[in-house]
Amino acid sequence: MQIRSYNSLKILAILFLLISSNSISGQKKENDTIVSPFRKGKWLTGLSGTINSSTIELRNTNETTTTNEYGINLTTGKFIKNRFLVGITIAANRSNNSGIVERTTENLFIGPLVSYYLSKVERGSLFFQVSPGYVRYRDNTRIEQTSGFVEELGEGSGFGTLLGVGYSYAFFDLVTFDIGLKTNLLWINIDQESAPANTIISEDIFVNSISFSFGFNILVDQF
């Protein structure tokens, strides 16, 4: 009886060691699968820019209109889950039109940001992001006419949504380089003053722009 009890205890001990070993190895394997640089608890802070340029030529009148658009975006946030970022973004954009109609528009946007990175691999991932928020807008237009010129100045504020899609490549789990496309959707109420008529009108405008974006981000464990 004592020999059987001893053998039973020996078998139970061996089984316990095997189960414990498998459990530990399973936990290590599960942890090892989290290789994405966009891990829970990390902070991401970065600066990116947008740029776009176009030229339109009217052959009948030999008139040329050139448009240059550029912007700067500042983003910071924390991964509350693996590959799921929540933060804040500040974006400043400017557009210049030259030709018979000279126009300069500026807008400043600030709002919360949500980004999701699709891939679990360690080098990088496709991502989608959305940011709704407050926008401040300014517009200055000057139109040349035979009798002189007409100048219009509009200023106001409203609501905007920034949408983005792109690819983020990670270097040494510390720095990422992002490249993609961004769309700005702005709904704004402005007061527009015209000169030399000196009249002021209020109107609602909608702004929709698409731009190419690129920039660098820093990944840290603590902010």
Report what the structure shows:
With 223 residues, this protein is mostly beta strands. Helices cover 14% and strands 70% of the residues. It has one helix at 2-32, and strands at residues 43-58, 63-81, 84-98, 101-117, 124-145, 148-171, 175-195, 199-220. The chain has an eight-stranded antiparallel barrel. Mean pLDDT is 81; it is low at 1-6 and 22-33.
Topology:
Elements: H1 2-32, E1 43-58, E2 63-81, E3 84-98, E4 101-117, E5 124-145, E6 148-171, E7 175-195, E8 199-220
Antiparallel strand pairs: 1-2, 1-8, 2-3, 3-4, 4-5, 5-6, 6-7, 7-8
Summary, kept brief:
The protein is built from 1 helix and 8 strands; from the N terminus they run αββββββββ. With 223 residues, it is mainly beta.
Rg, rounded, reads 28 Å
Average pLDDT, to the nearest integer? Answer: 81
Biggest beta sheet summary: 8 strands, antiparallel, barrel
The number of distinct helices, counting runs of at least 4 residues, comes to 1
Residues in helix, %: 10-25%
What pattern of helices and strands is seen along the backbone?
A: HEEEEEEEE
- The proportion of residues in beta strands is over 45%
Properties at a glance:
single chain, 1 helix, 223 residues, eight-stranded antiparallel beta barrel, mainly beta
